[in-house]
Here is the input.
Amino acid sequence: MTSIKQFQVTFDCAEPERLGRFWCEVLGYTAPPPKGFATWDEYKLSQPTEQQDSWFVCGDPSGAGPRLYFQRVPEGKAVKNRLHLDVRVGTGLVGEERLAALEAERARLVPLGAVHVRTLYDGTDSCIPMQDIEGNEFCID
Here is the structure.
């Protein structure tokens, strides 16, 4: 039996490039254009109108994290995610130090369009549920 070494996370969405660029900012990912094209705009112009802006991809420049793939779908988000990303900024921290690190990341993401849902803090552990620009849930952890 073979072991899977790589995977990608796929987002169904309304605006693939817009959502992909948001996640690039959140995670420090990059979005090189498809092979053979200097820019994403050049690639889009090469496609038939109905296929333009139908997908977008970005990845961890170090190669350590998963590739993110964004695909346009006709339906909007209707219910809570059954799977979400945790943006790990407080690993190894506890108490007020952890909360401060999470709050700093929240403050960075809100101007990008993220929505702060609530802050969970019990004096030791903390987590901040958020939503991205299309309403997909994620946590700052």
